[in-house]
Amino acid sequence: MSLLFKHLRVHQIFGANTDVGKTILTTALVRASAARGIPVHYLKPVSTGHISDADDKHIDYFVGDRKANVDTACLFRFDEPVSPHLAVRMAQGRRSHKMDPPTDDAFVNAVSSHIRECAMHHDSISHMYVETAGGVHSPTLSGTTQVDCYRPLFLPTVLIGDSHLGGISTTISSYESLVLRGYIIDMVLLFHDGYYRNWEYLKPYFADRGIHVLSFDAPHKRLADPDEENALMKAYYAKLVPENHHSAIYDALDHLDQCHARRLAELESMPKRTLDTIWWPFVQHGHVKGTPDVNVIDSASQDFFTVYNGQSSSTLTSPHEPPVSLLEPQFDGSASWWTQALGHARPELTLAAAHAAGRYGHVMFPQATHLPALRLAERLVHEGPGKGWAARAFFSDDGSTGMEVALKMALRVFSTRQGCDVDVKEQKKWGILGLKGSYHGDTIGAMDACEEGVYTCEWHEAKGIWLDPPTVANRKGSFIISLPPAIAELAGAGSDTVRVSSLQEAYAVESRIKSPLAQAYECFIEQTLKNLKENGGPTIAALVLEPLVMGAGGMIFVDPLFQRVLIDVVRRELGLPVIFDEVFAGLYRLGMRSSGPLLGVQPDISVHAKILTGGLVPLAVTLASDSIFRAFMSDKKIDALLHGHSYTAYPLGCEVANKTLDIVEKIAASNDWDQARVKWNASVANQTRESSVWSFWDPEFVDKVARLSIVSEVMALGTVLAIKIRDDAGGYQSHSAQKLLASIKYSEQNNSVSAAPGGSPFGINYRTLGDVAYFMSSLNTPVAVVRSIQDRIWVTLTCT
Amino acid sequence: MSLLFKHLRVHQIFGANTDVGKTILTTALVRASAARGIPVHYLKPVSTGHISDADDKHIDYFVGDRKANVDTACLFRFDEPVSPHLAVRMAQGRRSHKMDPPTDDAFVNAVSSHIRECAMHHDSISHMYVETAGGVHSPTLSGTTQVDCYRPLFLPTVLIGDSHLGGISTTISSYESLVLRGYIIDMVLLFHDGYYRNWEYLKPYFADRGIHVLSFDAPHKRLADPDEENALMKAYYAKLVPENHHSAIYDALDHLDQCHARRLAELESMPKRTLDTIWWPFVQHGHVKGTPDVNVIDSASQDFFTVYNGQSSSTLTSPHEPPVSLLEPQFDGSASWWTQALGHARPELTLAAAHAAGRYGHVMFPQATHLPALRLAERLVHEGPGKGWAARAFFSDDGSTGMEVALKMALRVFSTRQGCDVDVKEQKKWGILGLKGSYHGDTIGAMDACEEGVYTCEWHEAKGIWLDPPTVANRKGSFIISLPPAIAELAGAGSDTVRVSSLQEAYAVESRIKSPLAQAYECFIEQTLKNLKENGGPTIAALVLEPLVMGAGGMIFVDPLFQRVLIDVVRRELGLPVIFDEVFAGLYRLGMRSSGPLLGVQPDISVHAKILTGGLVPLAVTLASDSIFRAFMSDKKIDALLHGHSYTAYPLGCEVANKTLDIVEKIAASNDWDQARVKWNASVANQTRESSVWSFWDPEFVDKVARLSIVSEVMALGTVLAIKIRDDAGGYQSHSAQKLLASIKYSEQNNSVSAAPGGSPFGINYRTLGDVAYFMSSLNTPVAVVRSIQDRIWVTLTCT
């Protein structure tokens, strides 16, 4: 991940094209730094072309008489003057070169490690220039284009513009490709060309965009005679980088120094400024002790944030310790509140967002249509979680609003079924049937579908009844179903737990449906409904469930058999609409597209968000069956579903969702997950994949953690790992999990290469829900990363 | 705007750079179309370089023996082989050329008009190729780069890739610049280069992105002798476009034909598919008669949608009528539910979105910070609507959630002020004080802060009391304050209206504050509060207002004096927190940043959304004063504001908001609006700009419409024009406005050049609220567009 040192200022040099003067202007920068007596590192990670032309040799030769200040390096060198990805293949073809092209990860690790090594040597100002090869999108050794391959390093960028005819276009397009990857672009440098005068156009163009442009006299045309050429080039450099330290190239140095200083100052100022202005969600500001409590996120890539550690003690180096990067990777352990599934800042999603923004902006949706929304609706209804039961898609902005829409749908259906004699006062008190521990979002209507609790506000009115459900977990190495007392009694097992042989058995709903436990569940539910009716409880209008797991309620894994029986009984006895809140659990968070196939029943209404938009932007979709939709059809305008946010079905969100589903479904259809499935003894057959039960986390690890004395129970399903800490005063107000794991947030400074991009040591950003700590992977987190998180969790739990 | 004809297939040709073979491959396409006996139009809007080299001459010369089928044209021609923006200046410098460079609008109109003329001639298949100059971002005559300048035409695109060294990079970057503008890219064509083999890399790269790549043998190196050169080129073209109709260039034709056919088929299928899958917000599907009721939005630019009219009668041309474009502009008359302010699909906003997406994706916000959110919070609090009173910014997803947050804040403050003895049952019934006609969003909590009405659902419980407010409007040519009966009686005026001399007088709150009417207001409010207390009304916890105008309630312009007095009395008598719901009215929708300076009082809490994100993505911010924030501080976690959506403060949304505010504040600080201000006799002095009252709509027009017998009253403020139709059965259920204006939706097919980009005839997409029709401009809508909308409204109102 990104590296930032106080004393070593690092810039990467990208070119708008080949042959735009990248090496010459980089040489000038190196020479200017050296002329000022500053130690300079020049790194050309990949060099192609004859050794005599190689960029580091060029610099060695032309740096002037301050050579002692300059350190040049090249990590991969090829003779052929072609794109690196071809050079590798040509070299292999000739068999003169045995090496396989390095993977992007290995490449990034090599560059990162070189930079860190350079930083070790300096406790006063030094400069580093990392020169890329060709244009911004020229392929690297692996074939990935450079802007993408270098992205995890997130180095501040100098773009060398193109002064030729057409160069305005290539310079601006290259700039935009850098913008699309989020880079910080500090400066554009280019040659003067008296005829095309591109710099004249580009200076105000980039000034409008906050970017400084400097232009330089171009060198002569290359001469055939090497001695003459070298002599002329020496003279050229002597003029470009004069000994009197006054020229545009020194202005460039000053500007880069200022950018570096500003960046350091900005990062340092951010915690205080944040504490002065921001009101955080779900945070007790009274608990915030000061600036070190603010997690400054400078960028993100894959499953890692890059965070500023300038305030943490680990970077306050004594004179004897080597300087540590002020930015370090931090594993995004809660998948940024359960939204991430493909890694942060995926270029495909950025481009999808940009394409829709560029085509539509936002366009209003009532009685209108556009491709991104239509395609998303069609795929969710026909191929996605709505497959086989849904008929319509209704758009809103987040899981909470999606649930409000779902509730409005269900209430109307119930109302319609009551006929004309609905008492308007009575309907305000209609309730839903749900489970204890449910959470459906933060808006007051969604909250009213939950019990009163810590999350609820003054206006909250719990509308409904909530059953205490049996749960599944690994406790001390065995998978068990924990029964609430009332059910335990009915089950007559003489115990409040039922042991199952494996995770697979627990989730084999169809094979458990005739079991005595299923009968006990049925009996319990029937009795509850009967009691409710007899004792004048609220009129129940809908069944509302988070299938399989109740997230915010504390990662409670509900026995799926209980949910199945509940749905069956409610449908049979009351004929009520069933809402699945799949905001958290859906779209492969638990390793399966939706929970219907596993439960063996489908809802009438379902709500989808979070992963839906790949962890980039908010969007929710409420799916409904045709009979739900028809309850709103009439010839009266006011019978319509009069709900609609301004940005309903905004094209950018829909297009990002479409691209996310493309990627997610491709991952799900591949064999990538089969290794994990096999470990969990889950089916890898195509026909049962839809309900296959497995986890990205290792079964041995889960088992091992469950046996720890400080741990009460553990569950893993799909990307989710939940560890419940033994704590007599549990619940949301407990701080036990938070305290126990506190040290995991910090990186362990050691010399081993970590699994984070770039190999730097990393900490883990984690969230707790009272006594439950949870960790979440993406759908494509590398096994090595998962393992290293497991190792770190293990060390933290066992050494505290 | 975009043109699309059934028989004339049009493609624009962009190049990844100069000298990539754009003219050669375009010539080949033209020649291939002609060889198939298809009439071909070749348009080079701008040509630079010597006439003998000019692209149209090249095509004329090399098109083969089917010349009769080919029509070539060039709109602007310059001798100099430089970028068009320079060519114009050089030509002017030589005084050989008198013309001013055309504006982008004029340029787009010229191209559009040429295309429409070409389409006129064909009722069977024909092709058209529009060749741009240089690379995608080469500047056009005005200096705007081509991708941006051509964007309103939104023509399907062929990109000519670059086969040289570095060409992979320039091709991909050019592609990305096209993606950022939302273009449909049908194909990439490039030369074979045996050494660099770019096509080998680019074929799979673009296949992954759904784009077809074809490659072609490159021509020989240009010969010095023109005759030899011509002979060789003839032979080259004969091989590239053989008479047997079998070669890659014919495959390219087939592919472009398929793309065109697919696009037509897709547009035609969209209405039916939409009616099959989409559940629209705020739409009674029972009223939807069929596919013609679906507004298919193909793209958008400036203040216009481009909509498909293939189903409307106006395009069902008889054999004697010329073909009409299947796509036409439609003015976005409701600013897409009040979100637009800068025009659709602004590249600056797209790039801001892309930059944040590329740097962060989304990163979780509790106890974290990132630059886009921090900067947005700081500017809203310190320089924006929070200036002078706010201390904190809390993020959520839309106006409705922003209001739920505001209500939770206010309720807590009230609760805290009650001390320890708050009755938990009692607090559920606390109410707010508001105005009749209020609307604060669709979620149930926000709804509970409004009266029961057509919008409310089964669970709605009106919590509070709502006063009937006096309103401002132009009625029959005079500005009047309409008083509700109770106030009219107290005012003792003997009438329910008070005439004011002008809009300016109505909004001069400070000068009206001592008036008898102000005293009547005060008396009425005090009495109401007293009655409430005496008669055991709900406990009032907060004052909640939409300042100046209640939007969804029917564009009700409340007398600002009444709101001012109400705030003063409530603060004095009850000391309650005051919430401003500025979701609709804020951020210059009404010509001023916020309503506080005009009202002369500031709120304790305010909510901002809609314009905040420039009409691109959803985001809301709730601002709060320090004392509100402190009510949640404690050492208990559960005392925190436990509200937070997954994508809270997502970087993409925050960055788009930052860029929007940059642009909006720049417009507001410029003199662009002064002409309109002067017309309305509003102050143009810097010190009073913050509360200056004026409108983008002409005062004469407003006056004229107000005098129509079918019109009850009219108001215009800032971008908003509201026309209330005379209708005895008014309100939301009324269809009077909808019916009266129905014809305005359709374009008037005539030969005049319209004010829409490209000059095509356009319809107006408008929304009504019962008996009120409203129209909204952006903050930068050209005067010509506003005038043409006014003209159209006038004609529609007076001719029906």
TrEMBL record, chains A, B:
* Principal subcellular localisation of the protein: mitochondrion
Keyword tags: Aminotransferase, Transferase
Q: Name one GO biological process term.
A: biotin biosynthetic process
One Pfam entry name: AAA_26
GO molecular function terms noted in the UniProt entry: adenosylmethionine-8-amino-7-oxononanoate transaminase activity; dethiobiotin synthase activity; pyridoxal phosphate binding
- Does the record carry Transferase as a key word? yes
The portions of this protein that span the membrane are none
The protein's matches in PROSITE patterns, at most eight in alphabetical order, are given as: AA_TRANSFER_CLASS_3
The places in or outside the cell where this protein is found are:
Mitochondrion
- Supply one GO CC term from the record: mitochondrion
Q: Where is the signal peptide?
A: none
| Protein name stated in the entry | PLP-dependent transferase
Q: Which organism is it from?
A: Wolfiporia cocos (strain MD-104)
Q: What is the lineage of its organism?
A: Eukaryota, Fungi, Dikarya, Basidiomycota, Agaricomycotina
